[in-house]
Amino acid sequence: MDYLLGLFSRFTGNEEAARLMFTAVVGLSAMLAVVAVLMLVLGLQDPVQRRLALIKRGHSGHGAAAQEMPGNLQLLLERVGQRFASSDLARTSATQTLLTHAGYRSVSAVQVYWAVRLMVPLMLLAIAVLLLPLIKVDPIISGLGVVVAVGIGWLLPALYVGKRKQMRQGRLRAAFPDALDLMVVCVESGLALPTTIERVAEEMAVSQVELAEELALVNAQIRAGITSTEALRQLAMRTGLEDIQGLVSLLAQSIRFGTSVADTLRIYADEFRDRRTQAAEEMGAKIGTKLIFPLIFCLWPSFFLVAIGPAMIGVFRAFGNM
């Protein structure tokens, strides 16, 4: 080890940088060794096991399906997730719903998610254990650092998925008014509801890709034989937006009772605009309350320093002369 550290020191010219580089190399080597052992244990490189895994996923090995075959890393994560994922159906369903709202709709999304949540803390734990001998700190602080690293590794994938869900729902919510306007125009021009959805998906394929993909999936489900109401209800479940849920309820009632779909869409578009206006007014009303903390911690100290500072200096000078 001293010989290797000497080589790194000669290469970098700095002992601390050499230690950090040596630790990084050792950590990377350990991680690659663990991955290799897992691949050997799980039989991932066995052609028979790989073929069976691809058959279970529905890949035939020919045509376009062969171009979408998963790599070894994805198959490894799926197998690890299958071994360590929760067996509770309610928890699995909640995780699947969260991942669907975040845009992960694959069959193995839950397994990959739990595998990542398991492997990231282990990687951070290994890095922390390798770095602790190089940093001379109290053992209690070292233990707390290891615990914090493991906790961050466990929470980081969940925070990332939650943030991705919020951003995706924000983009869908922002694109939904334009889709409503286009649907109103298409329905009033005489197009049926499935044709309207297909047309709106084509028009928004460039500007709003995510909403266009969701609408295209709705159209594909309708062509496969699912009713329009059920396809729209599944759209609301995939997106998790209350706005789309309200539209689905109105369209279901309109289709059930035979009322005009164009009138329903126009009324909901007007209500949606009013709702957005009220939300904007609510956010504007909160600005005054949110500005209190920046004023207290940033502006007022400077103001008091400028206003009272000269007087305080004069007082100190007067008492100092006494």
Q: Quote the beta fraction.
A: under 5%
| Tally of structural domains | 2
Sheet of most strands: none
Measured as a percent range, the helix fraction is over 70%
Radius of gyration: 29 Å
Helix run count: 15
Assign the structural class, choosing from mainly alpha, mainly beta, alpha/beta, alpha+beta, or little secondary structure: mainly alpha
Please provide the count of β strands: 0
- The outline comes out as flat
Unreliable runs, pLDDT <50, ≥5 residues? Answer: 59-70
SSE order in H/E notation? HHHHHHHHHHHHHHH
The end-to-end span amounts to 69 Å
Mean pLDDT: 77
Itemize the secondary structure elements and their pairings.
Elements: H1 2-12, H2 15-41, H3 47-57, H4 64-67, H5 72-84, H6 89-102, H7 109-131, H8 139-188, H9 193-203, H10 209-223, H11 228-239, H12 242-257, H13 261-285, H14 287-290, H15 292-321
Written description of the protein model:
With 322 residues, this protein is mainly alpha-helical. The protein folds into two domains: 2-58 and 70-166, no CATH class; 168-283. 83% of the residues lie in helices and 0% in strands. It contains 15 helices and no strands. Helix 1 crosses helix 2, helix 2 packs antiparallel against helix 7 (109-131) and helix 7 packs antiparallel against helix 8 (139-188). The N and C termini lie far apart (69 Å).
